[in-house]
């Protein structure tokens, strides 16, 4: 049986340190969001080094990590300005950006000697882009086209500043080094990002009479009937006169087979056979056309 180790026992049972002991720099600061940017950057570097020496999951680790998040929320607000206005609330987007900030804190390697902002801003932007890409499309499109839309949007911004006008498909294709067909596909996919209600007023400025839905055409099922009638005309003309008369009385005058038989002096069964034979000829003629 192994002998007890008093050193390990003391370490295991030692009480957790208070926040003041873990990060004395924070004791007198109060609200971390009001710290000047320069001071916040310097304190962030100190706390990141301190965090790297703490055990994950402990109270001390959580305290320093939460302090780093509070200290750098301004980075999230800065990243949000890159995306302009959106339909989602700023509070919801701040939460998404905060997730990116936490990921940056957890993944940052102090020994590499980088500025935290250099690493954090791209991580926060990436989290926001994934959120917009995956949750704000009005119509679901493949991930490839969602990413292509972002690439085209950046290229359009860059070329618009250079050319002082909107770039053409050919210019976008040359700038990005991709086929024009792929550029067109990405531009078409961008139309699925936002949709308008069909109840909106019609017109270019939304001030036209009536709703937009009233201006949208629909398939007229009667067009197919017109095509069938045009195709049937020569086939009906080729039928014997009696067959044409029976068809007219059945489908134009809407007479029953018994009523047709009374007019023509035929039995109902005979009329049924003649009608079936005429319809079969017409069907065969349409299928062969």
Automatic annotation (TrEMBL):
Cross-referenced PROSITE patterns: SIGMA70_1
Domain of life of the native organism: Bacteria
Listed GO MF terms: DNA binding; sigma factor activity
GO biological process, one term: DNA-templated transcription initiation
CDD domains per the UniProt record, alphabetical: Sigma70_r4 (cd06171)
Keyword presence, RNA-binding: no
Region: Disordered, residue numbers: 1-21
Pfam families in UniProt: Sigma70_r2, Sigma70_r3, Sigma70_r4
Keywords of this entry: DNA-binding, Sigma factor, Transcription, Transcription regulation
Gene3D superfamilies listed in its UniProt record: 1.20.120.1810, Winged helix-like DNA-binding domain superfamily/Winged helix DNA-binding domain
Record-annotated RNA polymerase sigma-70 domain positions: 92-105
Protein name stated in the entry: RNA polymerase sigma-B factor
């Amino acid at each position: 049986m192994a002998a007890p180790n008093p050193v390990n026992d003391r370490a295991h049972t030692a009480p957790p340190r208070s926040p003041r002991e873990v990060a004395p720099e924070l004791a007198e600061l109060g609200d971390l969001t009001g710290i000047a940017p320069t001071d916040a950057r310097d304190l962030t570097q100190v706390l990141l080094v301190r965090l790297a020496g703490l055990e994950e999951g402990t109270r001390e680790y959580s305290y320093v990590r939460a302090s780093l998040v509070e200290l750098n929320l301004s980075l999230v607000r800065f990243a949000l300005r890159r995306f302009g206005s959106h339909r989602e609330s700023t509070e919801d987007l701040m939460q998404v950006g905060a997730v990116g900030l936490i990921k940056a804190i957890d993944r940052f390697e102090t020994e590499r000697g980088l500025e935290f902002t250099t690493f954090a801003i791209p991580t926060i932007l990436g989290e926001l882009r994934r959120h917009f890409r995956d949750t704000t499309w009005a119509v679901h499109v493949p991930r490839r086209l969602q990413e292509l839309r972002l690439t085209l949007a950046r290229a359009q911004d860059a070329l618009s500043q250079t050319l002082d006008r909107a770039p053409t498909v050919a210019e976008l294709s040359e700038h990005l080094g991709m086929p024009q067909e792929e550029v067109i596909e990405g531009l078409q996919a961008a139309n699925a990002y936002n949709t308008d209600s069909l109840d909106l007023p019609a017109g270019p400025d939304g001030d036209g009479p009536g709703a937009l839905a009233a201006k949208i055409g629909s398939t007229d099922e009667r067009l197919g009937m017109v095509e069938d009638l045009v195709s049937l005309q020569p086939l009906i003309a080729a039928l014997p006169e009696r067959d044409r008369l029976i068809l007219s009385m059945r489908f134009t005058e809407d007479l029953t087979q018994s009523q047709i038989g009374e007019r023509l002096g035929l039995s109902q069964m005979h009329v049924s056979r003649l009608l079936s034979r005429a319809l079969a000829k017409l069907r065969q003629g349409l299928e062969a056309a």
